[in-house]
Amino acid sequence: QVQLVESGGGLVQPGGSLRLSCAASGFNLDYYFIGWFRQAPGKEREGVSCFSNSDVYTYYADSVKGRFTISRDNAKNTVYLQMNSLKPEDTAVYSCAAAFRPNGCHAGEYDYWGQGTQVTVSS
Q1: What is the 3-state secondary structure (H, E, C) of 32-85?
Q2: Integer Cα distance of 81 and 51 in angstroms
């Protein structure tokens, strides 16, 4: 059974950091593009960061460049999103997703999704 499970969300003050984890089971992340997406209330889901299995392709949304870092641990079959210098506008439900060969960091092209984890940035 293919499954992605996110963890690491929570409440953090502006300027703080969180590290999200996305653990995969039922398939090997080595062969897939992985992306982190977020959706805030009343807004469309947006691609935050995506990368290819070979790490040749890495994408960051302009709003998170220099603050967020995507990485993977193949031994643990897990992908991470390190989020630093968090801002209130980063508040959203963050979900990880996997796709075999997408054309970019577009949610519609990703096949497998986790349930999401809430990130709230507030003082």
Answers
A1: CEEEEEEECCCCCCEEEEEECCCCCCEEECCCCCCCEEEEEEHHHCEEEEEECC
A2: 11
Per the structure block, which two tokens stand in for 90?
């980063």
Backbone angles phi and psi of 3, in degrees to 5: -150, 140
**Residue 17, strand partner residues:** none
Tens of each residue's pLDDT in the chain, 123 residues:
889 999 999 999 999 999 999 999 998 888 899 999 999 999 999 999 999 887 788 999 999 999 999 999 989 999 999 999 999 999 999 999 999 988 889 999 999 999 999 999 999
